[in-house]
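Lab notes, practical 5.
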Amino acid sequence: HPCTHHNLVEKLRHVVTGCLRKHVITPHYALTREKPLALVAWGCRMLMSEVDEEKVTDFIKKYALKGPEGDLPKEGQYTHALIKKAEVPRGSDLKDSVLCPNYV
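Output from the prediction step:
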């Protein structure tokens, strides 16, 4: 949700960027104030009111890279309002072969 507190967004951003390179972080008006954060993967979603690192990393490990593009490492073409290009998390590689390498 666009009105989500900056600290919550930054906490989620920290976990997600530490888990995988291929991700998008964006506000969405369909989210509610009660559950202003969401993780979305091909056919799956998890709505959250708080950032629970264990739940976030479990979701990513279970559902990430299941879309039709799989583990293709190429960069996407989307650049509109791009703030920062995604980086490979320390301990993984361009294909995101190791999901959430810095989380147990």
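Observations recorded by the TA: The first strand starts at residue 37 and ends at 41. The two ends are 29 Å apart (CA to CA).
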